Amino acid sequence: MIAAGNRSLSTAPLPRPQAILFDWDNTLVDSWGVIHAAMNQTLGAMGHPLWSRADTESRVRASLRDGFPELFGERWKHAEEIFYRAFEAVHLQELAPLPGAAELLAELAVAGYYLGVVSNKRGNYLRLEAEQLGWHRHFHRLSGAGDAARDKPSREHVDHALGLGTAAAGPAAGPDVWFVGDADIDMVCARNTGCRAVLVRAEAPTAAELAVAAPDLHFTDLPALAAHLRGL
Question: How many CA atoms lie within 13 A of 66 on its CB side?
Answer without folding.
Answer: 17
